[in-house]
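Example 3.2
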Amino acid sequence: QVQLVESGGGLVQAGGSLRLSCAASGSIVSINTMGWYRQAPGNQRELVANIMRDGSTNYADSVKGRFTISRNNAKNTVNLQMNSLKPEDTDVYYCNVVVRTRWYGPLFDYWGQGTQVTVSS
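Structure, written as tokens:
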């Protein structure tokens, strides 16, 4: 089993910054992709950013140039630095990892419990 612990959400004024962190632990052999998604009530969960093991990244168009994702492979952690926050960034943010729990085994998706980010205007 794999556990994800998220931290760093909160309330910030527009133009401010927040840093989200997620630590993965448990029966992990390797982590393929680490990322952050967000979801507002009644909406689909959408990708904010993800990062591959080799460091390559993907960002939603709405956050490019403002958010930066990074990971530490030795510590199994992923961070999301969010700058120039806007009210429309208000959502619940979820950490996601795609892992192998045994060598040459299948990949599994795991999700964090979610952390609230609220940006006031």
